[in-house]
Backbone:
């Protein structure tokens, strides 16, 4: 059995990561505009970029998890029989 991932796996995870990044950007932008309506555009962009940079490793890991779960399903019966 081949255990290494094919290159297409990372391309798919890249698209999921992009979608998560866009969702994070829109969510932060809406929250900042709802609660802090006096903040300027430059500061808003700086806050969003800062939070995005901090969360980049988590978004990358989450995107790989989401992408692999599209194709590989967890089989509880099989997991119990391998003990």
Residues:
């Amino acid at each position: 059995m081949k255990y290494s991932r094919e290159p297409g796996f990372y391309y798919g995870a890249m698209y999921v990561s992009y979608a998560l990044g866009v969702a994070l950007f829109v969510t932060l932008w809406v929250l900042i505009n709802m609660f802090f309506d006096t903040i300027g555009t430059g500061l808003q962009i700086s806050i969003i970029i800062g939070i995005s940079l901090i969360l980049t490793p988590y978004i990358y890991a989450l995107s790989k998890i989401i992408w692999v779960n599209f194709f590989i399903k967890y089989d509880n019966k099989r997991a119990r029989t391998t003990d």
Notes: The mean pLDDT is 87. The chain has three helices and no strands. The chain has one domain: 7-81. The CA atoms of residues 76 and 82 lie 10 Å apart.
